[in-house]
Write a structure and sequence with these properties.
heterodimer; A: 299 residues; mainly alpha; MetI-like fold; B: 390 residues; 2 domains; 18 helices; globular
Chain lengths: 299, 390
C-alpha cells in the first residue's frame, strides 16, 4: 500500500502561493463556512440530547447556545432513559457481540487466502482468484433472499452466529482483494530466505506476513468495523428487532417509529449509537484515511 | 516457495502430532457451541445448565432453565464468549487444518496446503455470494408465475418507476454533489494552515451510520404547524426569512432532494479525502511551469490540475455511485418509501419482508445488480490502470 499511495508522502512540497492577503482570507472564510455547515447537524443533535423535553419542545437548540447558563434546561436524564427504559444499553452489548467476531473472522480468512493467492502455486489459482474479485461486483441484495430461505430452514435467523457468518461472507471479497494487493507487494526474498531456513508456509505467514501487514489489516479492520457497527440492512433481515438480539441501528430505527416526536430521546439515542464509531474514527483516522485512499471499492 | 527443506517438516514431535487434531476438535467444538447455544440468551442458559448438570449441580441447572440468566450478566458472558469464539475458533480452524495436513505424506501435503489456506474463504464466498446470486437470478425467472409475471409485475408497478426516477436523481445529484463539494473542499483546504483540522469536520459524518444520520436530519427538517416555534434548523431559517415552513418529509419530490442532501453530507468527506491525496500528488514543477506560462489560479485548477486527477475523480464518482444505487437505510428510516420517495433497494426490502413476495424481490435484486455491474467494472478497471490492484 505504501507503494501505491506515495501521494500522502509528498505533502511537504507545496507549490508557491501567489494569492495575496485578500485571496487567503477569502479561502479561510470559505473553509470556515463549510466546516460550520457540515458540523451544524451533529452539534444540534449533541446539544439537544442534553436538553430537557420541555426545553427541546419550546425552543430551537440554538437558543441553548445563546442562554447557556439557564441550568434548568440541561439534563442527562435523556441518556439514562434511552439506555435503560428503551433498552439501548442491551443493544450496545449486542452490537459489540455482532461486530467483533464479524471483523476478526473475515480478516483472518482473507489474510490466509490472500497469502496463498500471492505466494503459493496451486491448480485453479487464477480462476479462484477471479471468482473472489468478481464477487466485488455482486451487491449483497443479490444474496438476501436465498440466504434468508436457507436460514429459515436451518433455524439461523435471529442468531448471532448467523449474523457473523453473513457479515463474513459479504466482507470477504473486499478483504481478500485489499489484502492480496498488499501482501503480494511484500518482498519475496524475505520469504525465500525464511523457507531456506526451514520455515513452513504457516510459520512464514504468522511470523513474517502478519506483522508486516499490520497497516493493511488495521485499515481494513476499521472499514469493516464501521460498516458492521452501522449496518441496518443485514441486522434487520437476519437478526431482527427482538430486544434480546437487536443491535443499535435496528433499535434506533424502532425508536424513530415509536417516538418520532420525542426529540430529547431520539437525539440521545442517536448519539449513543454514534459514540463508538466516532471514537474509533478520531483515534485511528490515519489508518482509516489510508485504507480509503488505497482501496475504495466496497462492493 | 515450494522448495521447502524436508528436514524442517520432521520437527513436529509427538506432541505436535497430537496438537493438530486437538486444535481441529477444539475449533469444531467451539463452532458447535456457537451453533447450538449462542442463538440467544435462553440458549446460553441451556449451555450453563448443561455444564452445571455435568458437574453435578442439578439444583442450579434447574433454576437456570426455569428463570434464565440475569439479563445483564447473560449479555456480558455472551459477549465474552462470542469474542472468544470469533477470534479463537477461526485461528484454531487454521492451526488444526494445517497441522492435520502435516500428518500426510510429504508430497501430498504441499499440494493440499494451499487449499487449506484459501478453503475457508472460498467456501464462505460460495455459500454467501456465488450460489445465492445464481439462486436469485433463478428465482427471479421461476418463482411464482415465472419470469414473465415477476418482471412484468415489477415493470407495471408505478412505485417501481418512481423508484427508478428517484434512483436516477440520487445518482446524478448525490454523486455530483459529493464529488463537486469534495473537490472544492480539497482544493480550498490545500491552501490553509489547519488543513487536517478542517478536513476532520467534513470527514466526520463518514463514521456516522445512515440511521444515525437519518435521525440527525429528521431533526434538521423537523416541521411544526404554522404558529408554533420551529425547532428544526431548516424550517427555522425558512420562517425566519418570512416564508412558510415546509414539511419536507411529506412533500413529494422535494423529500427526495432532502434525502439526497443527507447522502451528500455523508459522502463528501470520502470524496474530499481521496481527491485531496490526489491533489497533493500533482507535481509542483508542472504547476510552476503553468504559472510561468501565465495561467491564473482558476485556469491552473481546471485546465491542469483537474485533468491530471481525472482517474481519481472517476474512481471516487463510481464508488459513490455504487453506494448510492444501493441506498436503503436513509429512505427506510426517513420515509419508508412513502410520499413518492421510493428507491429500488427499499422497494426490494418491502417486497421481501412486508409482502413476502420472494419472486418480486429477486427480480428487483437482479435489476439492481445489472445497474451496478457497469459501474463496478469501470471502477476496478480504472483502479488497475492507476496501478492499484492485481
Amino acid at each position: 500500500m505504501s507503494a501505491q499511495a506515495p501521494v500522502l508522502e509528498t505533502a511537504g512540497i507545496r507549490p508557491v502561493r501567489r494569492s495575496g492577503f485578500l485571496g487567503r482570507t477569502a479561502v479561510r472564510v470559505a473553509v470556515i463556512a463549510i466546516t460550520a455547515i457540515w458540523s451544524l447537524p451533529t452539534v444540534g443533535l449533541l446539544i439537544s440530547s442534553f436538553r430537557s423535553n420541555a426545553a427541546v419542545r419550546s425552543s430551537g437548540w440554538w437558543d441553548a447556545i445563546l442562554h447557556p447558563f439557564e441550568s434548568a434546561q440541561w439534563t442527562v436524564n435523556n441518556y439514562l432513559s434511552v439506555l435503560n427504559a428503551d433498552g439501548l444499553a442491551g443493544s450496545f452489548v449486542n452490537s459489540l457481540v455482532v461486530t467483533i467476531p464479524s471483523v476478526v473472522i473475515p480478516i483472518t480468512m482473507a489474510a490466509f487466502a490472500a497469502y496463498a493467492f500471492a505466494w503459493m502455486r496451486f491448480r485453479g489459482r487464477s480462476i479462484l482468484f477471479a471468482i473472489v474479485v468478481g464477487m466485488l461486483v455482486v451487491p449483497l441484495q443479490m444474496s438476501l433472499v436465498p440466504i434468508l430461505r436457507l436460514y429459515l430452514e436451518i433455524d439461523l435467523t435471529g442468531t448471532f452466529l448467523g449474523t457473523w457468518l453473513a457479515h463474513t461472507g459479504f466482507g470477504l471479497p473486499l478483504a481478500t482483494y485489499l489484502l492480496y494487493n498488499y501482501i503480494s507487494q511484500l518482498p519475496g526474498d524475505l520469504f525465500e530466505s525464511a523457507a531456506i531456513d526451514g520455515a513452513s508456509h504457516f510459520q512464514i505467514f504468522r511470523r513474517i506476513v502478519v506483522p508486516l501487514s499490520v497497516p493493511a489489516l488495521a485499515s481494513f479492520a476499521i472499514f469493516q468495523f464501521l460498516w458492521i457497527w452501522n449496518d441496518l440492512l443485514i441486522a434487520l433481515v437476519y437478526l431482527g428487532t427482538n430486544a434480546e438480539v437487536a443491535v443499535l441501528p435496528a433499535r434506533l430505527n424502532e425508536l424513530v417509529g415509536t417516538k418520532g416526536e420525542a426529540w430529547h430521546l431520539l437525539t440521545a439515542g442517536a448519539f449513543v449509537t454514534m459514540v463508538v464509531p466516532l471514537v474509533v474514527f478520531l483515534a485511528l483516522q490515519r489508518y482509516f484515511v489510508r485504507g480509503i485512499v488505497t482501496g475504495s471499492v466496497k462492493g | 516457495m515450494t522448495a521447502i527443506s524436508p528436514v524442517a517438516r520432521r520437527i513436529p514431535t509427538s506432541i505436535g502430532n497430537l496438537a493438530s487434531p486437538a486444535a481441529l476438535l477444539g475449533a469444531a467444538a467451539l463452532f458447535w457451541v456457537a451453533f447450538e447455544f449462542l442463538r440467544d440468551q435462553a440458549g446460553l442458559a441451556r449451555l450453563f445448565a448443561t455444564v452445571y448438570d455435568l458437574v453435578g449441580l442439578d439444583a442450579s441447572a434447574e433454576a437456570l432453565l426455569q428463570y434464565g440468566l440475569d439479563p445483564v450478566q447473560g449479555k456480558l458472558i455472551l459477549a465474552v464468549l462470542a469474542i472468544a469464539i470469533g477470534i479463537g475458533g477461526v485461528w484454531l480452524l487454521f492451526v488444526g487444518m494445517n497441522g492435520a495436513v502435516d500428518l500426510l505424506g510429504l508430497r501430498v501435503r504441499e499440494r493440499i496446503r494451499p487449499y487449506i489456506f484459501i478453503g475457508p474463504a472460498v467456501v464462505m464466498l460460495s455459500i454467501f455470494l456465488v450460489f445465492p446470486a445464481a439462486a436469485t437470478v433463478y428465482a427471479s425467472l421461476t418463482d411464482g408465475g415465472g419470469w414473465v409475471e415477476n418482471y412484468g409485475r415489477t415493470f407495471e408497478d408505478p412505485e417501481f418507476w418512481i423508484a427508478i426516477r428517484n434512483n436516477v436523481l440520487w445518482l446524478v445529484l448525490g454523486t455530483g454533489g459529493s464529488v463537486v463539494i469534495g473537490l472544492a473542499v480539497a482544493a480550498l483546504t490545500d491552501r490553509i494552515k489547519r488543513e487536517a483540522l478542517a478536513k476532520t469536520f467534513i470527514f466526520l459524518p463518514l463514521a456516522i451510520s445512515m440511521v444515525g444520520a437519518a435521525v440527525i436530519w429528521r431533526f434538521m427538517y423537523a416541521w411544526r404547524p404554522p404558529g408554533e416555534t420551529q425547532i428544526g434548523v431548516v424550517n427555522a431559517a425558512i420562517t425566519g426569512l418570512g416564508n412558510e415552513a415546509i414539511p419536507f418529509i411529506q412533500t413529494p419530490t422535494l423529500n427526495t432532494f432532502a434525502l439526497i442532501v443527507i447522502m451528500i453530507w455523508l459522502q463528501t468527506g470520502f470524496a474530499m479525502v481521496v481527491l485531496s491525496a490526489a491533489l497533493k500528488g500533482v507535481s509542483a514543477e508542472v504547476l510552476e511551469a503553468a504559472r510561468m506560462d501565465g495561467a491564473n489560479e482558476l485556469q491552473l485548477f481546471f485546465r491542469v490540475v483537474v485533468p491530471m486527477i481525472s482517474g481519481t475523480l472517476l474512481t471516487v464518482a463510481t464508488t459513490i455511485s455504487i453506494a448510492i444505487l444501493k441506498v436503503f437505510d436513509i429512505v427506510y428510516v426517513m420515509t419508508g418509501g412513502k410520499f413518492e420517495s421510493e428507491v429500488i433497494a427499499n422497494r426490494m426490502f418491502t417486497e421481501m419482508f412486508v409482502f413476502r413476495d420472494f419472486g418480486q424481490a429477486s427480480s428487483l435484486a437482479v435489476i439492481l445488480f445489472v445497474a451496478v455491474i457497469p459501474l463496478m467494472v469501470l471502477n476496478i478497471r480504472n483502479l488497475r490502470r492507476q496501478g492499484i490492484g492485481a
